Amino acid sequence: MSNVHVIDHPLVQHKLTLMRRRDASTNSFRRLLGELAMLMTYEVTRDLPLQDIEVETPLELTTGKVMDGKKLVFVSILRAGTGILDGMLSVVPGARVGHIGLYRDPKTLTAVEYYFKMPGEMQERDIVVVDPMLATGNSAVAAVDRLKELGPKSIKFVCLLAAPEGVATLQQAHPDVPIYTAAIDRELDSHGYILPGLGDAGDRIFGTQ
Ligand code: URA
């Protein structure tokens, strides 16, 4: 699959396995998701441009490299995206944040938008869309469709787990959007859950259900 980055670092894989466990508590699930998001951000931001600035060390003046974190927007697909967002913000604290509220129609499994709030000047920004589960891909496609209307510089999609069906749907609709994930699982079940998966990510993050 082109334009799909499976982050196979041992720390990422180890933490993902702990999150899959049925008996992982809400507390440890949320903590592990935050840690995974931090680790994944390292790969997701690898190609961000750097600029030179002057910096005065205790000994002399030199040149250092910095990235412009404020040009980045993390767009969280509510509500489960929030669990990834916190970890990413802890390593890129200057990033701006947008939210898209989408719910999945239980009958058609299509995405219905109920909330959309973005920072200004989106044409100058690089967007990272976050949602822990790329299942049918319908929400991801709807989010990217909507964000492309704003004309951003670039869009990436970050999830924790993907189903092959979701990867195919997103890639077919938006082949220019790279997908970053910790794993691609076997398949979707008839309710749109990823198998073997980790269950309902939102419920596990927030302790609902
Ligand atoms: N959303 C989830 O939270 N879990 C899945 O398995 C699929 C979609």
UniProtKB/TrEMBL annotation:
Keyword Zinc: no
Name under which the protein is recorded: Uracil phosphoribosyltransferase
Pathway where this protein functions: Pyrimidine metabolism; UMP biosynthesis via salvage pathway; UMP from uracil: step 1/1
Family matches, as Pfam families: UPRTase
Gene symbol of the encoding locus: upp_1
Cofactor note (record): Binds 1 Mg(2+) ion per subunit. The magnesium is bound as Mg-PRPP.
Enzyme Commission numbers on file: 2.4.2.9
InterPro entries: PRTase-like, PRTase_dom, Upp_B, UPRT, UPRTase/APRTase
Modulation of this protein's activity: Allosterically activated by GTP.
Reaction(s) catalysed by this chain's protein: UMP + diphosphate = 5-phospho-alpha-D-ribose 1-diphosphate + uracil
UniProt source species: Hydrogenophaga electricum
Key words, A-Z: Allosteric enzyme, Glycosyltransferase, GTP-binding, Magnesium, Nucleotide-binding, Transferase
List of residues binding uracil: I194, G199, D200, A201
Molecular function GO terms recorded: glycosyltransferase activity
Sequence positions that bind 5-phospho-alpha-D-ribose 1-diphosphate: R79, R104, D131, P132, M133, L134, A135, T136, G137, N138, S139, D200
Ranges for domain Phosphoribosyltransferase: 6-208
Chain's role: Catalyzes the conversion of uracil and 5-phospho-alpha-D-ribose 1-diphosphate (PRPP) to UMP and diphosphate.
Gene3D superfamilies from the UniProt entry: 3.40.50.2020
Family, as annotated: Belongs to the UPRTase family.
Cofactor entry: Mg(2+)
Superkingdom as given in the UniProt entry: Bacteria
